[in-house]
């Protein structure tokens, strides 16, 4: 991220102070010509996310709570899936789609171990 990019932080900070925005990340978001479904480290040493669907210079660093969210129901093998599933995952772990149509988009994440 370029230094000129706004961080959506308060502008009246004293030297040495840093504020972190608490506004929610927007997923998915588009940065350049690419759509992202989770935090990215592009042009940064740390993961960040956009605060707008189309990146407009408003962003913040990610935290452990900013992981991508499952979308339910989602389409997998032309069927609606309403929960995390183990179907199709060779490691017998549950997963979910990050978009409404996994068959088309192929964006996914592993679900928590409890599911």
Automatic annotation (TrEMBL):
Entries under Pfam families matching the protein: fn2
Domain Fibronectin type-II: 20-64, 65-113
Location within or outside the cell: Secreted
Keywords: Disulfide bond, Fertilization, Repeat, Secreted
Record SMART domains: FN2
Principal location: secreted
GO biological process: single fertilization; sperm capacitation
Family designation: Belongs to the seminal plasma protein family.
GO cellular component: cell surface; extracellular region
Organism lineage: Eukaryota, Metazoa, Chordata, Craniata, Vertebrata
Record-given protein name: Fibronectin type-II domain-containing protein
MF terms (GO), sorted A to Z: heparin binding
Ranges in a coiled coil: none
Organism: Theropithecus gelada
Record-annotated disulphide pairs: 70-96, 84-111
